Amino acid sequence: MALLELTGDQELLRSTARSFLESRCPIPRVRELAGEPRGFDPIWWRAAADLGWTSLLVDERLGGGCVSEHGLADLAVLAGEAGRLVAPGPLLPTNVVASALSEQLVGTVPGPEQASMRRSLAALVSGEQTAAWCWAPHGSEVRATPVAGGWTLSGRIRGVEAAAQAGVLLMTADGPDGPTQFLLPVDLPGIRVEPAGGIDAVRRFGTVDLDGVRVTTADVLGVVGGARTSWGRQLLVALVLQSAETVGAIDRVFEFTTAWAFDRYSFGRPLASYQALKHRFADMKMWLEAAHAISEAATRAVAADRPDAGELARVAKLYLAEHAPRLVQDCVQMHGGLGVTWEHDIHLYLRRVTLNRSMYGTPEQCALELADLIGA
Hints:
By secondary structure, this protein is α+β, with helices and mostly antiparallel strands.
């Protein structure tokens, strides 16, 4: 498939998602949700799940399915539309966890040892429940101590998206055999989630504390001690979805800023007619087109599990970390004094792209990882 080219089914997916968001969760609704503790409407989230927002990375045998060859490419289309309207809801963490559960369960014979995970996956796909991916900058900040019949988990992870709203947590813990991933219901004894603030209007975060949480092999996702590979894959999925969302956000900001420049007059001329501003718009357009291209390239590489997937995902992260906030800041200036008011929507987009800049790794961390990958 050519770069930036969508199939007919993906175009339908995009137009359906855009219509759904514009009708069910427009910007005025996003502003209302900014004052609510959850940050999203559970009824709205279940409607989004009915449209396939939580099942594109889940195998068909487990209730999922996608519209193209790669579900991640389809989900990136949805993430871009979510970015265009700074939509609420834990789209990224829920899908990362659902994908991990699908990989664990696909092709296995249903049994009592997997019953809890199957119920959790079904609840995520239906939208009845959401999930939190307990990402940490260095892989894990939780320790797994072997005990009779399993392990106890202790530690703390800060800045977990949707932690206080989630029904299950996907947690990585370091132990004697290496890092291991566990799927934990939030109501397990010893788990405490404390809501934390953030700069995004509708994104919610929390600090997860674990104090001697008892787990067994039935709670293990993947192989004991073998979580490094699966955690790395989950990070690439997260980076791709984050990049697609950021591109959708800056695309929309550039769109309404350009319209403003043609509608707004100064000294009898539209702002868009001034040469100095034309040069700035040209720069922003170049950044935007490059952002589309690198995000698309990263999506296709990760979806196809290509050898360069890790490099491209991080290149996309780095490019957008530098240029997305800069583009939105330039658009703020194009609006003049209006651009720095609460009443204008542009600050919602600036909050989202600024948050995405540091989520799932700062640019500095990402650059070091990229240098390791290319042997620099």
